[in-house]
Structures are given as structure tokens and as C-alpha cells.
Please model this.
Amino acid sequence: MKQKVFIANMLPHKKGCVMRSVVQRVDRADIHVGGKSISGIEKGILVFLGIEQGDRESDADYLADKIIHLRIFADERGKMNLSLLDIKGEMLVVSQFTLLGDSRKGRRPSFAGAENPERARLLYDYFIKKAKEKVKRCAEGEYQTMMSIELVNNGPVTMLLDSRRSFLKDHD
Model:
């Protein structure tokens, strides 16, 4: 009996779909579930990752590479000129479907564009796998679980990134 395997890159790409992220430069970040610490990092990047219907592995590849090489850490002159790899920093990745919330109509956001949980989990795991290939330590949140996230934002530096660069297009 043949088993069906989901391959994210085989899905037709829907117009407008993006893998979305909020990236924060942190001195530390910790995740708690039920009052118990389950994961955390020291100096590095906290990534909130939202996966939309139609996203593919190529979206995860782009975002992982972009985030890992994003020059948002200060060099010896105080300029943001160093990447996570340059500082040998750590990464904490948290799945967050609410990044795909659409609040254009009414007052209650719609999450209809978010990928279904099973497919989103595959891409979330793939993103983490790609990050772990390059980053010295990549921790993760607990998928589909209510978490408390404690962080010390450094700067603050917070970036909005997506796989289609639509944040820029929206403001042209």
C-alpha cells in the first residue's frame, strides 16, 4: 500500500501567499508552557513564523537564509553590520499563525489564509531544520500550544520579513 507524502513545493502557489515572520534581536528569550520553562536562548534572534496556504519549502529556504544573514547586530563601531552567524548567536523559532490574521473587515481577525496545522507543521519543521544547518543553536517553541514568551529585546530591533517581500510592496 502506497503512503501519501506531502511535499510543500508541489502545491500550486496561490497569488499573494507569503511565509511571514517577525524577527527580534534579543539578549535572551524563554518559552514557558504551564508555568514550566521548555526552551530558551541567550543572545540572538527570536523568530515568530506564520505559514500561509500555498507556502512552499522555497519560502522557508528564502526566509531562513535571509534571517540568518540579516545584519542587525552591532560591529565594533556600533553599526548594524553583523549577522547571527558573525556573532555566533542563537535562534528561537515560534510558530505563530496569527501573523496571517486579516483585520481589514470588521473587528475580529480572520485566519482563513493560514495553512492547515498538519501542512504548516511540515514547513515549520523544515524551516527549523534549515536553520539548524547553519546556526550554532536553534531552539523552538512547542507547536500548537499556548505559550508564554519572555524576552529581552535588544535595541529594540524588530523586523517584519516575508518570503514575497510584500511588506515593501504594500507601501510603494
User: Anything to note?
Assistant: The radius of gyration is 16 Å.
